[in-house]
Design a protein that fits this description.
The chain is of the alpha/beta class and 220 residues long. The chain contains 8 helices and 9 strands. Strands 5-4-3-8-9 form a 5-stranded mixed beta sheet. Strands 1-2 form a two-stranded antiparallel ribbon. Its EC number is 1.11.1.24.
């Protein structure tokens, strides 16, 4: 247990101050990134729809039955920190797929942007759209973006942020990583309100190995 990377990263996430105390608030959209209430290890994932580049809905429940999932929420292809994270994720794609994982990277961008983005960045894993913000909201990582920030993003990056139905402000997900087993249960999570700090790829590989080992033991 001393060298368990899941424990190390869990303590690191707690040190970052992500609040997880209000279980009934996790499906709500937070007023800021610091106030999100993400789903926790051991909880079942919501079977919300995401959308492929072809505009077809897919659900996590169905996908998880095929293979365990490394699910990554990112802000969008306009975000330089997200692009760096996606590039780093590509460097460990073979390691994760050899372990039997499927990688799903989810953003609020519209489905028609996904195909060109995947080709431009030479990504081998799957990009999915959460343009209705249902997935980020259900995972407890969605938050409201101040209008001034939304305008700045539109001016600087040419991106119009999406919003959940009925919301007066645009919404974004806090960058997050969830490892989900084939029963749809979260085995690992990393959520950081500071969008400039992302999970190091080596730590993700280590967490994926331990999560897979724990799942195999549990299923015996």
């Amino acid at each position: 247990m001393k060298n368990n990377p899941l424990i190390f990263i869990a303590f690191m996430a707690l040190a970052l101050g992500v609040s997880c105390s209000k279980a009934d608030s996790r499906s709500e959209i937070a007023d800021s990134a610091d106030l999100v209430h993400p789903l926790l290890i051991g909880q079942s994932v919501p079977d919300v729809p995401f959308w492929t580049a072809e505009g077809k809905p897919v659900t996590l429940g169905k996908l998880a039955k095929q293979k365990p999932i490394v699910l990554v929420f990112y802000r969008g292809g306009w975000c330089p920190f997200c692009n760096h994270q996606l590039a780093e994720l590509q460097t460990i794609e073979k390691d994760l797929t050899k372990m039997g994982y499927q990688i799903l990277a989810v953003s609020p961008e519209l489905p028609d942007k996904l195909a060109s983005m995947k080709a431009d960045r030479a990504l081998n894993y799957t990009l999915l759209s959460d343009f209705q913000i249902e997935g980020a909201r259900a995972f407890g990582v969605a938050f409201r973006v101040e209008n001034a920030i939304s305008s700045l993003i539109k001016t600087r990056y040419g991106s119009e942020l999406q919003r959940f139905k009925g919301e007066s402000k645009a919404n974004l997900p806090v960058p997050a990583v969830f490892i989900i087993d084939q029963e749809g249960v979260i085995q690992f999570s990393y959520v950081n309100p500071n969008y400039q700090v992302r999970l190091h790829p080596e730590l993700l590989v280590a967490a994926a190995k331990v999560a897979l080992k724990d799942e195999n033991v549990r299923l015996k």
